[in-house]
Structures
1.
Amino acid sequence: MPKMILSKTAIIFFTAYFFIQAQNKTDFSIPAIDNKSIRLSELYSKGPVLVNFWALWCEPCKAEMKVLKDLYGKYRNQGFTILGINQDSPKSVSKVRSYISSQKINFLVALDPNYQYLQKLNGQSIPYSLLFNKNGDIVYKSIGYLPGDEMRLEEEIQKLLSAGQ
Amino acid sequence: MIILLIGKSVIGQTIIPSVSNLLRYGDGERFFGNIKLKQKYFENLTDVRISMLESFVVGFRLLYDDPPEVGETFHGISRRFIEYNNEDLYLRAGNSSALFGRGLALNLFENRSLAYDTWMDGIIIKYKSELFNASILGGRIDFRDSVNVVRNEIYRIRGGNFELSPFNEINIGAAYIYAEGIIPQGAASSGIPAKNIKAEIPELYLNINLRNLSFYLDWSRKWTNVLNETTSSGWGLYSSVSYLGEGFGITLDYKNYSFDILDPYGRYDFSRATRMLPFQNPPIVQKEHSYTLLTRPLHEVNFNDEVGFQLDAFSSFNEKTTLNFNASISSIHSSYMLNEDGLTFSEVKRNNNFLPSFKKEFFPYYEIFIEGEHYYNASSAIRLAAAVREKTFFNEFSGDGSSTVTRSFVIPLQIQHLFSEKYSLTFQSEHEWVNEKFNETDQKYFNHLITFINSFFLKLTATIRFEYTTSEIDISERKNWITGELGYRFGQSHVITASYGRERGGLICSNGVCKYIQPFEGFRLSVLSQI
């Protein structure tokens, strides 16, 4: 039985991988922390977008938010955007605005209290980041956060910006 | 309806599949006192989503849990759904989560590590416009108790939610849930017939989001009609106020959950039909910690009878230094006195029972937490925290006013340093002093946890965790636990983790759902892929 399940899983993976090479566009609208609606395609049509899933209870996420804030400050004038999607459950949502304000985070933050958008992008754990180019293709992904990950991410952002993507 | 919509245009359009897979394997022993039990688990979970025709998604979960680490054995398709989503309209048939307001009436979610799953199998329709959002849903919830997985509660629910936004800053919402349920009584083997219930749960909420101030108020009532018995009613109130300044944010939360206030006999009957139902899950109004020793809770939130506050503040002194302060307190509403017959209780009400009490007969719990974080360069930081927690358990059955008070003081320290792109080190130390006082008897001990995380080339991590206790009453009858773990990231989408060693068990809570996890000794492997 495990063999059968694993072989089914392998077939699913292979098929998905084949299709993903061909086509990768993603789009959705998500409520922002100030109740306004954000459409992903409107963001990536203007330049590279990093979608980052995070939560207040997740220490690596908060460490990553710090470096993302710096990257945003560095490249926002060149068209780079970040959309932070908060994964706190309803119990902590009230604290999210307070945290954002204290950290002076000025990129877009949206709420996903029942993991609907994390599932849409097939995330299983956080922090989880996806970098979209101007065409809506996912060009870089990162699961988890290790100090220094931002160097690799910055290289990818620079590549996209220099290619006009 | 969805099939008809698909039929409009089918082949030759964009198809975007996405897949995630989590494989978990473990081989070792669980400890129940001095009894060792062999435990092997093998779990493979594949989530597939196929987006097509821009607006449609078909998805399923292929699950192989045989044997699972927690929960029940399963192999096959555990979830499937079809979804239509355009600018205004959202339709979904199949398995789904859902949330109304802050979850006082409905919050369907899954936590696999606690074997808790209230996802519904049914239909959801949502419509949104600039002025309002509306949704209706209906379906079946097959709920396995996370403490006793052979207890199976079944609910058929129907409901709706309407949210009006006359201005961007204001949301006014109303929700209603009707449920019919079958609730087994006592343990699965008790032989007590299950109870059939009908429940109605209306909810009203208001959300105001101004530039520097936000306010939220949520009220819900619950009527439970147990067939052939009486109707019980209860209610819950949650509110929060946040104020935001320059580099500063403060939030005050309030809870008053009175969904099923009962005397001590009723309170400790966790299978009673009148309690808050599993598809309700309001805010816990306590801090959700990330330090290991603080994630072991002294207090389990009692959603049926609890009142309390939480104050949480973040402040940045400059770009590099942040302070977080959190304080919370809670208690039950009324105390109960054992009558002279030695069997029955009388309720002793207090006038101000909308506020928590520090008196021992109200089972008070409080917690004060403060944490400072300083970044001395972009990726290198030091964090130092302190937490005091105290829980009182009052023995109403003894009639002599005896109580057990557990006090814990924890100092966590974390230093994270990036030496170069090739190497970083995170060191974490957590020390906890515990004092358990039963009447005049004191028991003191400490727990200490040290963690080293070495990261090489942003791909490989090597972690060592060592925990030590001076407690004489640990369930595994051990004094120390050591685990080594290796993690490797393949490309951008795969993470493999292997660990070997002894892990200390304990109570774990998330979202107000708690489960006792037994100590484990052995090998674990997990492979996570998100493509």
2.
Amino acid sequence: MPRASGADMAEDALRARDVRKTYRTRGGPAVEALRGVSLSIRRGERVALLGRNGAGKTTFLRIASTLLLPTAGTVEVLGHDVAAEPDAVRPLIGVVPQEGKPFFHLTPREQVYAYLRARGVPREEAHRKTEWALGRVGLEDVADRLAITLSGGQKQRTMVATILATEAPLLFLDEPTIGLDPFARRAVWETLRQLARAGSTILLTTHYLDEAEALSDRLYIVEEGRVLAEGTADSLKRQVGGTIRVSVKDGAGIADRLGTYGSTVTEDGTVHVVTGEEKVGEIVDLAMKRGLSATVGPVTLEEAFLRVVGRSIDED
Amino acid sequence: MAFVRRWKGTGVFLGTELRMTLHDPLAIASSALVEGILLVFVWVLARDLLPFALLGSLVYSLFLIGQYVLSEAAYIRIDHRLNEMYHASPLSPEAYFLGMASGIGIGYIPTTLALFVLALVVVPMTAAGFVAILGVLLAVWTISASIAYTISTLFKDMKAIWPWASLIANVLGVVPPVFYPLDRWPVEWRSLALVLPTSGGAALAEAAAGILPLAQDEVVLAATALGLEALVAFAFTVWWSHRSAREA
């Protein structure tokens, strides 16, 4: 369950209670993008909203960053209501929008500096912070190249450097690595880890499970505008019913027996059993006696995610 | 104090926009294309209309500069999503709008300056006429940039915006008597031409330069319309910039 109600407000960088958003379309049916989201983020914490496309992650992030009004419910950022006090909230946050790109005709140095100045940072301080942020994300070598000539990863790191330089207490990143290649993704991950080490509180949205696991202290799984589960990656994996997955190839004939060791899923004739470490030996023995091969591995966040979201879809 | 705070950052965003505009000198050079071509046509076909065409092209160039705000604001919003980064910051939406419009205005001003110098050579004018023309140009730019910014917030696709930019520039800039004298326009529609920001502005500029005879009540009509339009367009856009920065 989300921990919003029990949270200590003084420690919370963000607190959302029963946030709802309904989009009314002209002539079409109303779309419920958020259906009562409650969550909280402690200061210094890195939290990921994990969900499929259209789950409501971006809608929540836009509400929390004062860009969208909720239909109902409240979001407080460092004690300020985002709907009632947007002017008090905005100096406290930094936002990297989904698929946001830097100004192509500015250099990273110009982009970061200009953004700081627009936020009201004095000249000298803006220069200092710009150099610091560019250094933190490793863009010194390309700091004077027009952004249009940079790679996708460098452009994204420019965006991250821009909000890093603000030293805002709460940072929002909406799908920060969408569309990037694996190398660029990892470069951005490292940049985000730098942000965390700098003490920033981060709320990021992603549909990449590895990203959520690598970058966040805690996750919220969001589906169809609702929070389905909350916890650390490990605690979510434990919700699956075990920590080890044993996959028995062509094991459909012994699926019933395998089911006695834990929860099972059959996929292309392979039976996956999620179980505890103590039962792994027995399952492997059983498979070998039947001449079947078995592979053993840890339960992944993907399995936890599919289990949680799949259960929700089944219930609907 | 709150009023000053609302506009704080305008100059900085102006600088940002100006820097970007100057990174693209070809766009600045090509901004003179329409006016240049029309002036060549007039020079070849009806040289006696050149003073009108020159003052009209001055008005049109400012109108067109305002229209560049449409493409730029939409591009930043749709392609780069940077408006969200700025709107979720202490920079106010009105400072964002005015900074962008002013930055583009200054970036593209060389075309207008060149036309102004040419106009001064061809049409000698008094100091009062000079000041009046400056006022007209400022009003035309304000109206155009304001309308452009508002329109830029209404679409989710760049392709949907391009026809609007072209439509506005041609319907308001080329069809009415901007590049040609008001007396070549149907008499029964003369009042309409005077209240349109482009043709009304051109008529006022030509009257200020002493090449177009305008009755006193016509001057009052055109000047009042232009002033009111500038005021209303700017005030509406300031309000709308707030409204659109945060979706309901």
3.
Amino acid sequence: MGLIDQAVDALETEIGNLKLNAQDAVEQLDADLSGAVYDTILTTKLGKVIGWAQKNALWPATFGLACCAIEMMAMANSRWDAARFGAEVFRASPRQADLMIVSGRVSQKMAPVLTRIYEQMPEPKWVIAMGACSSCGGIFNNYAIVQGVDRWVPVDVYVPGCPPGPEALIYGVIKLQEKILNNAGSDKARMRAA
Amino acid sequence: MNSEEIIEKLKSAKGDKLKDTEVTLGDAIVHLEPGSLHEVAEFLKSDPDLHFDYLSCISGVDYLDLEREPRFECVYELHSMDKNHSIRLRVGVPEEEPSVPTVKDLWPAAIYPEREIYDMFGLTIEGHDEQKRLLMPEEWEGHPLRRDYDLTREKVAFSHNLDFKEELVKEKVPTRYKPNQV
Amino acid sequence: MSVAEEGLLERNKDTMTLNMGPQHPSTHGVFRVVLEMDGEMVRSSDPDIGYLHTGIEKTGETKLYAHCIPMTDRLDYLNPPGNNLAFCLSVEKLLQTEIPARADYLRVIMCELTRVASHLLWLGTHALDIGAMTVFLYCWRERELILDLNEMISGVRMMTSYVRVGGVMKDATPEWIAGVKHVVDILPEKVDEYESLLTRNPIWMDRTIGAGVMTKEEAIQWSMSGPCLRASGVNFDFRKQRPYSRYQDFKFDVPVLTNGDVYDRYRVRVAEIRQSREIIKQAIENLPEGPYKVEDNKISLPDRDKLKTSMEALIHHFKLVSEGVKVPEGETYVPTEGPRGEVGFYIVSDGSGIPYRMKLRAPSFMAIPGMCAMMRGSYIADVVAIIGSVDIVMGEVDR
């Protein structure tokens, strides 16, 4: 009987300690967040709303270069409808676009034109490197092709394939939407818009 | 007319201007010097039986690795629309005098292939007043399709040689382009 | 650029220079043309190409013949089997082999299906440029059926690499044959639908009749080929004049019109879709039995199940994959008829398994000076219609 009593006592003290620890922890958290709660929650929520709006209305700039452009046009067509994801309005002027889908191989003569178009796009802007040639040079490892468009512009999503089917490109756009939403309201997103 | 008859007609009219003729795999082929190209081409176009009025394409070949003289060759492929026959003119261009007379007065479509030959092989075209690069950027140096021009300056980086990436990229290909300059 | 600056000093100060830059929704690829405009009329045009130069010809000089075939897919990326076929015909002419009948028929079916797909794509984008967006959505819907067939037989939607040296890649399966028959059945009513939207449409006729006229002599001088040549009155089609791949077995017409303007080119291409449908129908109904590639194992790979039992098959497979087809020395050129015109490869071989020089004769490349000659004297709105009607693909222009 003595042993059981001792065990009961030990358990009771342990439970009591845990309760005290938990209470301490909660008080600590309360103290940490009390000053900043109002501020971060408001801006984070607002940032999330802005991010949701941005991701659902990505306007691609027409930057079809080669074979991948055909699959990009197929994505905008009736079978794989990109309009469901908000990305149907292909703007011809880069000043009105926020997504540049580099679809096709970028040659040495085209690379400065690519950067110029990228610079003309207003912030926030994103780049999808569609296909193997814009991601890493593809099957063309030679003097004429830029081995990866990320040597000239920063890329957010790489979509592999030669050419990637429209369903793969839509998956890439969805991943970009997830990226926008995950970074929404954070410092990264605020720096983009600045 | 089949290929043998074409060659016979050409030899009987301009035999002294030709270096060599052959009929291989059913194609009529004529070997020429650059100096006699224009005269033979004009005859081929104006003769009523031959009437080669359509220029299909002009190719350049660099025979450096096969060690053949002359080093370069310009190959003209001609068709006839109404007579339905073809001929191939192979003009050997030596390395010491890399120039070929233009045929753009006979076939205006020749301006683009001739510019491409200048761009890719470095052969100057006499009489072509717009001798500038076609496919490569304006300030590019070198003629890419020559056999002594490297295909690429950069090896592929794998996971086993990733540490030595800086050594792999020997020298950035000179593009003479900086984004602000354009 | 420096060239435009030099030109500006010489040009007439009364004209305005307009740059239709490489990034433009209506130029069908990265094509740049600098227009000298006098008000709305174009006085002269100066094209600038090279924005898609890929160095495929030089890369081909380092690869085996079988490895060059996927590269040829990406030259004219709307006609991959046609490019493959032109390449293989030149190689097979040097090898002097006979291709079995079933392989020829399968090649013809794939090439004609791709011709239909290319013309549908052309019609969709051309109509979109001129302003008819509905046609764009309709044409591409039919094109998806053909791309599904591609995927069924080769695994890839666009760059099929189906035509190989010595035959084709894979035999036709019953599902594929049924799919082709389905496309053949529904195609005429769909083409009627597109024609009902455009051919007698007064807006379409106003915009395209009389624009970009090219006479018969000009078309031959400027080396136009394919539908552009036939719309100007020249009755020349390589499938009829120099039949290759058993095209002489099929009965089809070659549409030829005389005015040589944008409207005629449109009508020629739509008629060609109908004629291609006839060819596919005859080919799929009379598909002969037999091997789908050359039996000679020095040229085409042996069947995989023979590799387990036959020593010769194993050795041939090893040799073909590691060293490639040994093509005899020589050089040759075989012209074929692609959707854009005369496609051919000039191949120089040095006796090994790697081509010494492979050059593509691209119809769009030769058509560009002619197209710019058409633009002179037309209005700026017609420039878009003209570029669309000549149907250039920059992949084969710049190679």
